[in-house]
């Protein structure tokens, strides 16, 4: 599991095309919080599912994880608020159905007021 860096977007903007990294076969983790988003680019010929693991339970029932299907050649953005923070690591866990080199991710934090 790789720890994804958080790219803070200043008010002047941030070029992010060079901030994307390949998804890790064993999964990744990232920071959580207000204004944090996971950006996903699927350059593969097949669709892929990226899943944010939701830790915890409600009244003893597991909270469902959040799967995001990204079609071939498409991009997606997913908010990563504190609901995804694993209490043991303080970070969100991300899994992938597959991790070809063409599936890339980037974590950004936007300014919030």
Number of DSSP helical runs: 0
Average of per-residue pLDDT values:
95
Give the total of domains: 1
In the CATH hierarchy, the architecture is Sandwich
Quote the beta fraction.
35-45%
Structural class: mainly beta
CATH topology: Hypothetical Protein Tm1070, Chain: A
| CA-based shape | globular
**DSSP E strands, number:** 12
Distance between the termini: 32 Å
Reading off the top of the CATH hierarchy, the class is best stated as Mainly Beta
What is the helix/strand order?
EEEEEEEEEEEE
Helix content: under 10%
Poorly predicted tracts of residues = none
Biggest sheet strand line-up = 1-4-11-6-9
Tell me the Rg in angstroms.
Answer: 14 Å
Would you give an account of this structure?
The protein is mainly β and 113 residues long. It has one domain (2-109): Sandwich (Hypothetical Protein Tm1070, Chain: A). 0% of the residues lie in helices and 42% in strands. The chain has strands at residues 2-3, 6-8, 21-22, 28-30, 36-42, 48-52, 57-58, 61-62, 66-70, 75-79, 92-96, 103-109. A 5-stranded mixed beta sheet has the order 1-4-11-6-9, with no helix packed on it. Strands 2, 3, 5, 10 and 12 form a 5-stranded mixed beta sheet that branches. Strands 7-8 form a two-stranded antiparallel sheet. Strand 7 (57-58) and strand 8 form a beta hairpin. The mean pLDDT is 95.
């Amino acid at each position: 599991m790789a720890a994804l860096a958080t790219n803070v977007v200043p008010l002047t903007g941030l070029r992010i095309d060079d901030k994307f990294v390949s998804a890790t076969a064993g999964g990744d983790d990232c920071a959580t919080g207000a204004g944090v988003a996971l950006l996903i680019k699927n350059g593969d010929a097949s669709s892929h599912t990226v899943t944010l693991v939701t830790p915890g339970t409600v009244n003893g029932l597991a909270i469902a994880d959040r799967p995001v299907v990204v079609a071939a050649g498409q991009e997606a953005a997913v908010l990563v608020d504190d609901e995804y923070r694993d209490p043991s690591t303080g970070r969100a866990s991300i899994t992938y159905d597959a991790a070809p080199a063409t599936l890339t991710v980037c974590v950004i934090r936007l300014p919030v007021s």
